[in-house]
Every structure is written in C-alpha cells, then in structure tokens.
Write a structure and sequence with these properties.
Number of helices: 19
InterPro entries: Diguanylate_Cyclase, GGDEF_dom, MASE1, Nucleotide_cyclase, PAS, PAS-assoc_C, PAS-like_dom_sf, PAS_4
Radius of gyration: 37 Å
Helix content: 55-70%
Subcellular location: Cell membrane
GO molecular function, one term: diguanylate cyclase activity
Keywords: Cell membrane, Membrane, Transmembrane, Transmembrane helix
Membrane topology: Multi-pass membrane protein
Structural class: alpha+beta
Strand content: 5-15%
Strand order of the largest sheet: 2-1-7-6-5-3-4
C-alpha cells in the first residue's frame, strides 16, 4: 500500500504523459462508438494504463485516473448531470483498481520477471490481467449503468459480456506491445537493420492481407496468423506484437466501417465478433513469443554450461576422452590430447584402435581389443595401471579407468576413459623399493656383525629397530604423499575414493549412518579471473584448512574432490550432526573474510554445500550417496549459493 501512494517515485512528466496518452487513446476509441447505444466496446486507454503500470510502477495510476476523468468530461458531455457526477468516479475507480490488481497478481506470481520470458509466466499474465483483473469493472460498471438508468436491465448481461471482452481485448493486444517495446526495443531495431528487405516484405504482405480481409470482406483473415508467426521467429516479440497491433487497428477500422467479414447489424456486435478472432491471434502471438524466448534462453544456458564444462575438463590434471561405439573420439580434454597424441602416420588420428599402447610388464604392444576404450565399449568397468605410451624416446606410464555409458534402455552408446600420468607414482614406488632393498642389505650386514658378541648384538638390534622405524616412517610419509593433495595439503581424490568405499562397507556392517558433504567455492572462476590464479590457489588453501579445523574427529575426512570442490566424509553421523558441521563450516569460511568482489551473493568468499545422509542397506549402493550429495549441492547453487541443502 505504501508503494501504491509513493508518487515521488514517478516524475511529474511521466504522470503527464500517462494522462495525455489516456485522453488521446480515448479519442481514438470513439471510432468504435456505437451511435445507437453510445457505448463502446473498445476502450484502448485500459491497455495503455496496464502497460504503463508495468513499465513505470503502481503510482502511475494517478496520471491515468486524471486522464480518465478528463476523457469522461471531454468525450461524454462533461459532468452536466448528477448521474454523470456519480457514474464517472465509479467507472474510473473500478477500472484502475482492476488494472492495479491484475498487475500486482502477475508480478507476484512471475516474481517480477519479463512476462514473455516463460510460457507459464505468459499464462499468468493473461489470466490475471484479462480474466481476473477486469472482474471488478465487469460487475460494477454495467450495474451502475443500469441502476442510474443509462441502460435497461434487459441489457445487463449483454453489458457484462461486452465490458469484459472490451477490457480483455485491449489488454491482451495493446499492453504487450508497450511492455515488449520497453523491454526489447534495441533488439528489435537491430533485427530490422540486419534484415530490412525481409521486414519490408512482411509489412507489405500484412497490409495486403489486412486490406483484403478487413477492407474488402474476403474471408482470408486467418492468413494474418501466419504473418505474425513469421514476425515472431524473425523479429522477436516486439516485431510480433507490433504487427499484431497494426493488423488489429486495420481490422477494427474496417469492421467499424462495415467493410469487414465481421460486420454485423450494430457496431458493438461487429466488434465483439472481431475481438474473438483478434483474441485468438493475440494469445497465439504471446504464447509463441514466450516459447521462442524460453527456447533461446535454454540455448544460451546450454552454451554457457558447455563452455564452463569444457573449461573445467581442460583444467583437470588428468586426461578425459569420450568415444562412440566405433571407437572414434567424440571429445578429449587438453590433458588427454597431450598424453595420447597419436603418431603422425596414424591412418585415423581420431580412432582409438590406432592408439599405440604398451604393456609395462611385458614390453609388448597392447592389442586393439585390449585397449581401455574397447574394453569399456564391451561393457567392462576397468582400472588398468599397466599401460605405457611412448613419445619418441620418452616413456610415460599410464593408468586408465574406463566406464561404459548406457542409454535409458541399458544399451552401451559410448565410453568414457580417464587417463592419468603415473610417472611420479612409479618413480616414488621405485625409490621406495630401492630404499627398502638398501635397508634390507644393511640389516643383513648388521645382523652378521652382531653375531660375534652379545654387546655388539644389542647395539645392532637397537640400530635395526631404529632403522625399521625410519623405514616405517618413510613408508608412511610416502603413503601420505600419495594420498595428499599437493596444493591444499589435505586428502586428495584418490584417498577420498578409498576411504568412502571402506566407510560404506563398515557402515553397512554396523548398520550405522553415513553422511557426505560436497562443498563448492561460489563463483571461483570469477575469483581467479579477478585476483589471479595464485590468489585462487591461496583461497583454496585457506578454505581447505578451515574445513580441516572444523572437522576434528579422527574418523572424519576432508578431501579435495576436484578444482574448487571439496568433500567431507562423516562416518557415524546422522543428518542433525551433518547440519551442525555445515553450520560451523559456513561460519569458519565467513570468518576467513576473503574478499570476493566478483561474487553475486557476498563481498566475501562463500561456499555452497550439498549434504547427503544414508543408512547403507542392501538395496542402496555408494553411488546413491554421492549422487544425493551432488544433487543437494546443485540445489544449493540453484537456490542462490552461500547456503547448504540436505537430501
């Protein structure tokens, strides 16, 4: 209510334009005045009033009310009688209240979005403004006209129908043009400049069809539907609504003159019949424009998602390749291209069968049917770390993990293979083996020397124990390095995969709850773009360490899941406990106070958290838990980020 009377929101010149527009369009509406009854079923100012409310705000009602009063005084013999003095405010207020209610209901239902952006929002606009909004005027105006003796009670029902059709007609025809022009006029002007000849041809055809149908009375009016559809596809929602209003204006003019196929005994009857046809065109235009806008937005979102996914895959330190049923490569990220680049004399560089891999253990070429790609296409889930690829004199040991991709019928359509350079792992294993061998030799030597005397034996036994401790520590440190993320110094994805399988089996045996949290740094790509990758790495380190400090139980695990995404595994934790951890975690991230000007949810770095909680059972598997956590994380992002969602 406060917003309704906030007249400072609307400049005086806008109120003046609203009043002038109301008066001028009211004058145009007199062309549809029935000379017998003095009643018009085509009151264009109603469509203008609703359109101005949408683009300038609710307080513009004052200008439209002033314009309505002026129109009543000028066009309907002034306020010369007591009946006119009573009737004028009743008509004015019932109309404007209906317009305000329709606009308010629509804005509330579509959450202030552009009404042609989604088909369901367009339906809300039509229902609220064309069906519900005019109800007040439909009841009050005919009732007042009959009570005050302007019309007989026998015409009451006819007045109700005529009033409702007239209000709905102008709102569904004129209002969309005002809103779409305000919203997308630059887009329409650009489209016209790009295809002027097509626009001129469309205009000429529209004028020709309108002339034949509405000025000469030939039954070809439905050809205008095809032209409006053409305009919607090629010139957007502004072009479609503009053409629709132009055809409507010609149709009304021809019908009033009695030249249209819709001409009847009276002007009112003719226009009521015409409005039914125009309403069909208008609803078709609005619905089609909404569907086209929705499809265009979906294409844009899909393109953005694909670009983001490509960037994400190219940033991975592992290779990812996707192959069709024939083994041809459908996609490979940058690391896969680097690791698997085929030789220059390969017959088909996009086919997996020409990829030359070797068996490390046998130093032989791996047959095509034994390649990870074709094994996955055969339905096998595999993990092979006995592969090697050769680039000149360079030998690169590889680990390949292949997974078949199934359609909804369970048929294999393609396969995805993850490639990882395990040179560092092999090198560390070799170092560990050499170190172990050296220690064994030293222990043997010491043992032989200690056989001479008991004193020497005691000293050598102590030395052996110290050496064994050093060996155990070295093994632990090496194992820690294998399972440790090099940047954040927390557990890596490999460690997480091993632990979650082990905890799932343990929880299933004990029938104890298991919770999993996936958290993602909000708008991290923007952070990298704004502050640089070095600052991005530092941000990830701080987030990881904050999470590690929050999760303190020995059995809990904080791991880097990939990129800016982290995973927290909480054994023996129910949903209430997981929510408590999420609350502490969000507070810890907020306490870091890392500035993030590129975020849309906060000026500081925030995280979105997805929480999944399951009691492992025979009819569930581990992928269910991970999928639920991923879906919860997706929902947290969809709801606006900087929050947690539990499933």
């Amino acid at each position: 209510m406060r917003q309704l009377f906030n007249f400072r929101q609307i400049p005086l010149w806008q109120q003046a334009i609203a009043a002038a527009a109301y008066v001028s369009t009211g004058y145009v509406s007199l062309f549809a005045l029935d000379p017998v009854s003095g009643f018009t079923v085509l009151w264009i100012p109603s469509g203008v009033s609703v359109g101005l409310i949408y683009i300038w705000g609710y307080p513009i009602w004052l200008g439209t009310v002033i314009g309505n009063v002026i129109a009543q005084i000028i066009f309907f013999n002034g306020l010369s009688t007591v009946t006119d003095v009573v009737l004028t405010p009743v008509i004015v207020m019932s109309l404007i209240i209906g317009h305000l209610l329709g606009a308010y209901w629509t804005a509330h239902l579509i959450q202030n979005r552009y009404f042609l952006g989604r088909a369901k929002d367009t339906i809300c606009f039509i229902v609220c403004n064309c069906l519900l909004g005019p109800c007040l005027a439909v009841v009050i105006v005919p009732l007042s006209l009959c009570l005050l003796g302007k019309f007989s009670w026998e015409l009451y029902l006819s007045l109700v129908i005529t009033t409702w059709i007239g209000e709905a007609f102008v709102i569904v025809t004129v209002t969309p043009l005002i809103i779409t022009w305000h919203q997308n006029a630059p887009v329409f002007q650009r489209l016209v400049r790009q295809q002027p000849l097509e626009g001129l041809l469309l205009l000429c055809l529209a004028l020709t069809v309108s002339q034949i149908a509405f000025m000469q009375g030939y039954p070809v009016a439905y050809l205008s539907v095809t032209l409006i559809i053409w305009a919607a596809f090629r010139f957007g929602d502004v072009g479609a609504t503009l053409l629709m209003v132009g055809i409507t204006a010609i149709a009304v003019l021809g019908t009033v003159r009695g030249q249209s196929t819709f001409a009847q005994d009276s002007v009112n009857s003719s226009l009521v019949l015409l409005q039914s046809f125009i309403a069909f065109i208008s609803l078709t235009t609005l619905t089609l424009s909404a569907v086209l806008n929705e499809n265009e937005r979906a294409k844009t979102d899909l393109k953005s998602t694909n670009a983001m996914l490509t960037q994400f895959l190219n940033a991975l330190p592992i290779g990812v390749s996707v192959h069709n049923q024939q083994g041809h490569t459908l996609y490979s990220n940058a690391m896969a291209e680097q690791l698997l680049r085929p030789s220059s004399n390969a017959q088909n560089r996009q086919s997996a069968q020409y990829l030359t891999l070797y068996r490390q253990s046998a130093n032989t070429i791996c047959p095509p049917e034994h390649l990870p790609t074709f094994r996955a296409l055969a339905g096998e889930h595999l993990l092979d770390d006995d592969l090697e690829i050769r680039h000149g004199d360079q030998l690169i040991p590889l680990e390949a993990q292949g997974t078949p991709i199934l359609d909804e019928r369970g048929r294999i359509t393609s396969a995805i293979v993850v490639w990882q350079d395990i040179s560092d792992r092999k090198r560390m294993a070799a170092i560990l083996a050499d170190y172990t061998h050296e220690l064994e030799l030293e222990v043997t030597q010491r043992t032989q020397e200690l056989a001479h005397t008991n004193e020497q034996l005691c000293r050598e036994i102590q030395e052996r124990e110290r050496t064994q401790q050093a060996l155990d520590q070295a093994i632990q440190e090496l194992q820690k390095l294998i399972n440790l993320d090099g940047l954040t110094q927390i557990a890596n994805r490999r460690c997480f995969d091993e632990r979650i399988h082990r905890e799932w089996q343990r929880a299933a045996t004990r029938r104890s709850p298991l919770s999993l949290m996936l958290l993602d740094v909000d708008y991290f790509k923007r952070y990298n773009d704004l502050y640089g990758h070095q600052a991005g790495d530092e941000c990830l380190i701080q987030v990881a360490q904050a999470a590690a400090q929050v999760v303190k139980r020995p059995d809990d695990l904080v791991a880097r899941y990939g990129g800016e995404e982290f995973a927290i595994l909480l054994p023996d934790t129910d949903l209430k406990g997981a929510l408590a951890v999420a609350q502490r975690l969000q507070q810890a991230i907020e306490d870091l106070a890392i500035a993030h000007r590129g975020s849309e949810v906060s000026q500081r770095v925030t995280v979105s958290i997805g929480i999944a909680h399951l009691l492992p059972q025979a009819d569930k598997n581990l992928s269910t838990l991970i999928h639920l956590a991923d879906q919860a994380l997706y929902e947290a992002k969809r709801l606006g980020r900087n929050q947690y969602v539990a499933l």
